[in-house]
Every structure is written in structure tokens, then in C-alpha cells.
Specification:
142 residues, mainly beta, 12% helix, globular
């Protein structure tokens, strides 16, 4: 016997959808596929949970490595457009984004939907960045 096929609520593709970042989920032992044949790695992962106007169910971003390095998806696609004055390797509490009103556009990739763009519905968020040293960065990269 097979479980019944679940019909997920799909977001409209290619149009701006307003909503709020309702939660940020963390997985401290998330497996990420190795880059260009390298072995898979277990790292801390993060994803955003959104509640959108006119939609009944929450929708999630994809899982991303929890990194504020300038080439990381989290930094490049989300943080630099949502947080005023953000810089590579900035240290701050990511949970400050909970409750932020955003405008997104989505695309379809097979059975999945992915965020194409995200921007604040109002002003970019201003946060207090923690003071970190080069030694702190070296410790985190281990």
C-alpha cells in the first residue's frame, strides 16, 4: 500500500507575493552535497518559513548553509537585500528577521518551488553587528 499523494499548495510563479518571515528553522546536522565531487558535509543549515497573504499554508525556502560569507546563498540572496549595512562574515542574531514583511517572487523547478527574489516590503532592517576578530573567524572555520 502506498501513502496517498499529497497535493501541496502552489504559489503563483513570476509575480510579487507579499508576506512575512514567520520563523527561521535550524538544523545543526544537515547534510549538504559535496561541491564538484567532494564528499558530502554535515553543517548547520538554515531555512526561512514564510506566511503569505492569500495563502493558507506556510511556505519554506530551501535549506542553506548557515554562513554569512559573501559567496554563500544565505548572504547573497537574502541578507544583503534585507539587512542594511551587512558585510561578509557579519555576526548577528539571524532571528531578528522573524516578523519582517517581505515581497518575494517564485519559480518552479520540477515538483519544487524556489524563491527567485526577495526584498523588504518597507525599509531594510537595521541590526547591531557583533564585534568579532580574525581569531574568532578562524575558530568558526574549523
Amino acid at each position: 500500500m502506498f501513502p496517498p499523494k499529497r497535493d501541496y499548495e502552489k504559489l503563483e510563479v513570476g509575480v510579487e507575493i507579499s508576506g512575512v518571515i514567520s520563523n527561521i528553522e535550524y538544523d545543526e546536522n544537515r547534510t549538504f552535497k559535496g561541491f564538484e565531487g567532494q564528499p558530502d558535509k554535515k553543517l548547520t543549515g538554515v531555512r526561512f518559513v514564510f506566511n503569505f497573504d492569500d495563502y493558507a499554508f506556510p511556505h519554506n525556502s530551501r535549506w542553506m548553509k548557515f554562513s554569512t560569507y559573501e559567496k554563500a546563498n544565505l548572504y547573497d540572496k537574502y541578507l544583503k537585500v534585507l539587512i542594511k549595512g551587512i558585510y561578509s562574515n557579519a555576526s548577528f542574531d539571524l532571528d531578528v528577521l522573524k516578523g519582517m514583511k517581505v515581497i518575494t517572487t517564485w519559480s518552479t523547478n520540477g515538483d519544487f518551488q524556489n524563491i527567485e527574489t526577495i526584498k523588504p516590503a518597507g525599509d531594510m532592517l537595521e541590526v547591531k553587528f557583533a564585534d568579532i576578530t580574525e581569531d574568532d573567524l578562524a575558530d568558526w572555520s574549523k
